[in-house]
Amino acid sequence: MGENSFAPAPTALYGGVLLMAAIAYWILEAAILAEQGRDSLLARALGAGFKEKLSLLLYLVAVPSAFVRPWIAGGLYAIVAVMWLIPDRRIERVVSEAQEMESGGRQVR
């Protein structure tokens, strides 16, 4: 996108690659949850998967918007990237709670 100055086609293609990566992640997560079970520790930690669903939605909006206003698509790509840079403590929290329950409320290090 840099050398093409946010031309519509390369910007949309970039978004398509990001969208395919998000779909691959979603499929991988679903396969792992199917193996672990819907009431597993990981399933509880992941919850509803808000960030995953929001990422897919933003990519789906960004790709066609690249042909209308490429800067909108670029902004949406950046929003998703920043969203994933923010630490997600879901797994850490659920694992810590499970360890506390197993140890009878004592701190486990």
Walk me through what this model shows.
By secondary structure, the chain is an all-alpha fold. The chain has one domain (8-102). It has five helices and no strands. The longest helix has 29 residues, at 8-36. It is elongated and about 60 Å long. The N and C termini lie far apart (46 Å). The mean pLDDT is 88.
In brief:
Helices cover 73% and strands 0% of the residues.
Strand percentage lies at: under 5%
Categorize the overall geometry. elongated
Q: What is the succession of H and E elements?
A: HHHHH
* Rounded Rg: 18 Å
Average predicted local confidence, pLDDT: 88
Domain count, please report it: 1
User: Got a strand count?
Assistant: 0
How do the strands and helices of this protein lay out in sequence?
Layout: H1 8-36, H2 41-46, H3 50-65, H4 70-85, H5 90-102
Helix pairs in contact: 1-3, 1-4, 3-4
Structural key phrases:
elongated, 109 residues, 73% helix, mainly alpha
